Amino acid sequence: MPDREESLAGSLRRTGRMNASFSPKTILTSTATGRVIPYTLMDIRQNLVELGHCVWVQDNARLASLDEKIFSIVDGLVQVEPDAFVTVDQVGILPEVICLLDRPPLVVSWIYDDPRHFIKPNFLAVNSHLHLFCWDRAYLPYLQSQGLVHCHYQPFATNPQVHRPLSDEGYDYEVSFVGAVSPLRANVLRQLAEKGIAIDVFGDEAWTNLCHPLIRYRGVADNRRDCPRIYSRSKINLNMTSPQLLTALPVRVFDVLGCEGFLLTDRREDVDRLFTAGQDLAVYDDAEDLAAKVRYYLDRPEERDAIRRSGRTKVLQSHTFDRILPAMLKTVFSADVNVSCNAALSDETAAKYLWLVGTSYMKFGKYRQAYPRLLDALRLNSRSTETLMSMTLLAHVSGQAGSVQSCLKSLLELDSSLADWAVDVTAAREPSIEPAWWQRLYRLVFSELTVQADGTVLGWKPRQNEVV
User: In whole numbers, what is the pLDDT of the chain averaged over residues?
Assistant: First the structure.
């Protein structure tokens, strides 16, 4: 059995620092696609709002293209100027943009998936501002080996407002499993079925390929509507952990226990770190052991009831968002940070993102921040048509007629096809940017992008204190 190791939140709570007060923060976050992460982000947003923070959310999951998502994220960061950007995995993190902001936010990522798939060298551009909270402590050595300085172990949590016991109306299922099909899971359930144990399965339709009468596919389970009912009304809830979680427990464990469901899980090191096997949940070692324990616990309802009640108590004490998030944020905002981030971008990459960020600052009337970024972009690439166009527009909206003519002269030397655009800018009487000018500017780099009259993409605008 591994040594018990406290999570960050557990340590802070034990030492009495959990409830230390700190000022409310402005936080930006995003929506996402997928089976688990969208709901995790929803729970995080809800709890941050309830904790008193000002939370802005961008519904980037609805944007169709990668270019639209990038534009949305850049404009959100520039407009909101958050103290922190909070997310799961890499959702919404653009290190090349964050390191170039006038006031870079702290970046907080709660890692659920294998970080080797998405933590790349470009994350070092925001190293001093980046805090990675890893659900699986087995990945911490890898993250640290990449030079990342703020890496923490933090198991997952549940939202007890969603995953809570339902009224006692009996059971609908003897044994159930909610999750995606995989070869390992299919093999385990097939062995149970061959031993005469029926399982009700919820997830993707690939479960129907097992073609066994005792493996009963019940359809997709909605995280909010269906899962609390299934977890509460199953005599035994199974957990078969994804292989990418080497020592950690998935969200399913915490949600089942939050619903006061009885959980029978495969063995992971975090079972013994976070719970007491046989008291808060039950553990199996292989398919043979699983079948034996299913029969054992089906025949012992009183023992099941005692375990499931203890499991819920343990989760409410230590593994809910409202307990963990304050500790995470206190760690983040207490850490030393270099104001300038740790940017280490190539000239080509820096020029591209300096133009993008500088143009966004101009878009929102933040000319003081726009000018040095566009100027630096031009120094790195003096033949950048898009940067010269942005510099021209910045001079125009700032009322600097001489600078407009100087920029246009350099621009037309590079691309004479922009002569008609130059005439329009020169003839404009008002210090504003015409909708067609935005479209022509951005199409130089993003040929398929369509922008609105104000230069933003449709659906980009952050909403405050809403759980999208």
Answer: 92
